[in-house]
Write a sequence for this structure.
């Protein structure tokens, strides 16, 4: 059974499900006003790995992750560009899914847009006002955190110390600096929805609590996101549920920072790093391996060196898949443990897997998602497969190799076998012509050749040494 660290209790404990066999999870998605960065890449990979692992162990998973398409940054950015907020959000939502697909992150079962749930958000705010937990001011409606039992649970700080640390805000109508906005009254020119408090829009914390409860129901299993969402976002989501008497998430899971040059990645520090740049410069699978090689709660350092190191590891795995002619065929969609939950030897397509290695992999993953340990199990299988093949033990070698490929697939890491890397002459010719067109500045021709390659099933990337292609 999977044991996970719970931010609320601070303990690693077994995942206690609302309904045995089924997991409902909500992971806070992006606010779509800018291109995704490597921090987005990390949290989506962490929760994709968790989701895939739950499926691997035979659980049925419902995964919801929202798109925040109304929020202050969106309004500001759209105004700067002189376009409608909806035009801005459509552009960056498309960029989001493109990056997620490139990373091999499974699409959520539901990806609710905040703008589609505003009616329900108004209902929640009205309920909180009716209960006396929220109050109206000149610029909006606020939740009174003093009315919420256990406020500070996720932050692990009592109300008094949170209050002492809160920044003093300009709004003189707030009863306490910790009170947070549920509904914002509109200023001229802003997008609006009707409400009992006049035209306006929901606050961000209200968006997620409504969408998660609407789609997953009361007491859903797991709420996740990056560590910077613990306070105030998740604390405030929870506060609203508590104030309406509804059971909220049973477990809270948060992943660690991404650091760049030893510093926490953030736009304000100027070390904001584009996910698209990373994906264009390296194999997208390398970032997944880099993320897997650290525990999800530890910070990870993303530098050209750590990415290169992950690419070298990936090359060893691909080499194995080529040597034993095992590739993508084991990696179509989420993979289920072929041995079943008891870890006994089973068959995948008739060939045996190393049940002992699968059990070791599972014991690492079950221990608060110890992916570095799980990946070490995979590389141990690679060594054993190559060693057995060199010693003439074909059966043992194939068993170890198949198991390694299967476990990579369980982690969302498809490997490239022989048929995946052979480039036919026509495609090779297109690559050469595209490099010549790019060198000559003939972008129309380069784009047209890119289109031809993509239509014949290649992913086209621009590396420093020119066009690179790989099988989709
Ligand atoms: Zn959220």
């Amino acid at each position: 059974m999977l044991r996970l660290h719970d931010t609320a209790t601070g303990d690693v404990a077994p995942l206690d499900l609302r309904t045995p066999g089924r997991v409902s999870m909500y992971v806070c998605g992006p606010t779509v006003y800018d291109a995704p960065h490597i921090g987005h890449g990390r949290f989506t990979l962490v929760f994709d790995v968790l989701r895939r692992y739950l499926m691997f162990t035979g659980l049925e998973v419902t995964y919801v992750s929202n798109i925040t398409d109304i929020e202050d940054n969106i309004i500001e950015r759209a105004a700067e560009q002189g376009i409608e907020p909806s035009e801005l959000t459509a552009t960056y939502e498309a960029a989001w899914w493109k990056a997620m697909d490139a990373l091999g992150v499974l699409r959520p079962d539901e990806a609710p847009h905040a703008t589609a749930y505003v009616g329900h958000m108004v209902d929640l705010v009205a309920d909180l006002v009716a209960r006396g937990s929220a109050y109206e001011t000149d610029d909006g409606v606020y939740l009174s955190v003093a009315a919420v039992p256990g406020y500070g649970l996720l932050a692990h700080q009592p109300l008094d110390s949170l209050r002492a640390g809160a920044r003093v805000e300009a709004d003189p109508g707030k009863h306490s600096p910790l009170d947070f906005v549920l509904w914002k009254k509109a200023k001229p020119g802003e997008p609006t929805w009707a409400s009992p408090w006049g035209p306006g829009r929901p606050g961000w914390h209200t968006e997620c609590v409504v969408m998660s409860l609407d789609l997953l129901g009361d007491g859903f299993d797991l709420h996740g996101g990056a560590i910077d969402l613990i306070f105030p976002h998740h604390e405030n989501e929870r506060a609203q549920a508590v104030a309406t008497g509804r059971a909220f998430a049973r477990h809270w899971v948060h992943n660690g920072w991404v650091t760049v040059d030893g510093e926490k990645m953030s736009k304000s520090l100027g070390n904001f790093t584009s996910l698209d740049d990373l994906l264009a410069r390296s194999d997208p699978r390398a970032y997944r391996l880099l993320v897997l090689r650290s525990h999800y709660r530890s910070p990870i350092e993303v530098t050209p060196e750590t990415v290169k190191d992950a690419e070298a590891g990936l090359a060893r795995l691909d080499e194995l898949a080529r040597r034993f002619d095992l590739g993508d065929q084991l990696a179509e969609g989420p993979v289920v443990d072929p041995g079943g939950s008891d870890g006994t030897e089973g068959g995948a397509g008739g060939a045996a897997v190393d049940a002992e290695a699968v059990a070791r992999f599972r014991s690492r993953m079950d221990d608060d998602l110890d992916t570095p340990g799980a990946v070490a199990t995979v590389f141990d299988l690679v060594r054993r497969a190559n060693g057995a093949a060199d010693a003439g033990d074909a059966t043992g070698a194939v068993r170890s190799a198949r198991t390694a490929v299967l476990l990579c697939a369980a982690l969302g890491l498809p490997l490239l076998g022989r048929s995946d890397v052979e480039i036919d002459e026509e495609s090779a010719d297109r690559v050469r012509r595209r490099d010549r067109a790019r060198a000559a500045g003939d972008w129309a021709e380069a784009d047209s050749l890119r289109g031809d390659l993509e239509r014949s099933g290649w992913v086209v990337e621009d590396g420093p040494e020119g066009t690179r292609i790989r099988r989709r």
